[in-house]
Structures are given as structure tokens and as C-alpha cells.
Amino acid sequence: MSTSTSVTFGQGALSRAAALIHTLVTVEALLLLAAAPGLAGLLLVGPDAANLPLAAVCLLPLGPALSAALYALHHRDRDLADLHPARTYWRGWRLNALPALKLWTPLLAWLTVVAFTLTHFSATGLPGWWAVLLATIGAGSLLWGAHALVLTSLFAFRARDTARLAAYFLFRHGRATLGAASLLVLAAGLTALLTEALTALLAATLLLSLLHSGRPVIAETQEDFTA
Fold first, then answer.
1. CB neighbour list of residue 109: distance below 8 Å, 6 or more residues apart
2. How many CB atoms within 10 Å of residue 13?
3. Which of 31, 83, 92, 214 is close enough to 68 for a disulfide, judged by CB 3.0 to 4.6 Å?
């Protein structure tokens, strides 16, 4: 009787839901912990546009934290009897911290330049269509960053190869890119209309959705670009 119970425990729909909730809560807590130094710095940085470079520096720890979260969510256990989300998260952080920073740092630097230019656009003397062009390039860079973050979190490519693949998948899998865009719009909307704290608290759920929308990208990468 006990043997049958041990085999079936954790396999039902309710147990799988409980396992998912437990994983999301744990990953969310560890993500905030890993990004805490930068998030604390953001609280001290004023909202003035002149502080954008400082804000970018504060956001540096967020890249490895997000990468580790994606790794943990992708490799999550669905059996309530065998859950180790914290262990998986920190394994992902150790594996991906440096690769993630190699892509996250230049992306942050570029987005800072774009944001700084747009917030001081009247001083540039450029025609208005330049602002539209810069905003479009910034949005495209964010979408590229979403693909790059997924790829660097789940695969051990060189940074330049990850960058190329992320650019390739921007147009190769339009639905995945559209899914990433909708999540970015949702996060921006939550931040603008409510509070950035809510976006931070929903980060793990948003990342799980990013993994779901990025399944075609992950599948093609496994099939065509890994041995």
C-alpha cells in the first residue's frame, strides 16, 4: 500500500499545480534576492533623466538574476515529491552569470544611450522622425534582448553566437517575438499605471510566459544548433 502511494504521490493535477506555485514563489524570492543590490541602488537614484547611467549600473545584477530564473523555470520539476527550485536557481546563476553579463551589459549601455537621447531630444536639433526611429530601435533592442536572454540561459553558446541567433529569431519566429513584445508591453503598463513593485513581484510569472512563447525558438535551437 505504501509503495503504491509513493509512486502516485505528486502526479495529480492538484499536485502539479502546487509544484508550479511553489517553484514560482521560490524563484521569485531568489530573483529578488540576487537582484537586491541593484534594486536597492535604484531606490537611491532619483527619477531625473540625468541619472539614467547610474540606473543602468544598478540594473546590472538583474541580468544574471533573470537568466538564473529562466534556467530554473525551464528545468523545474513537476512532481511535488521532488522539488529543488532553489538548488536549480543557484546552479543556473553559477552557469549563466558571466554569459548573461556579456550580453546584458552592452544591451543596457545601448538602451541608456537611446533613453538619454530621447529624454533630451529637444536639445539635439534633430527632426522629429529621428525620435520615432530611435524609439523603434530601442523597442527592437529589447525584443532582441528577450531572445538573447532565453538563449544564453538555456544554451552554452559563445556570446557572439547567441547575439546572432537572437537577431535571426527576431524575424524567423514572429509569434515568439510578438509574445515577447506583449510581455514587455504588459510589464511597462503595470509599471506606468500601478507600480514597479508589482512588476517585480510578477517577474517569475512573466518569465514563465516568456519561456512558453519562446518554445519554437528553444525547439529549433535544440534541433539545428546543438550537437
1. 56
2. 7
3. 92
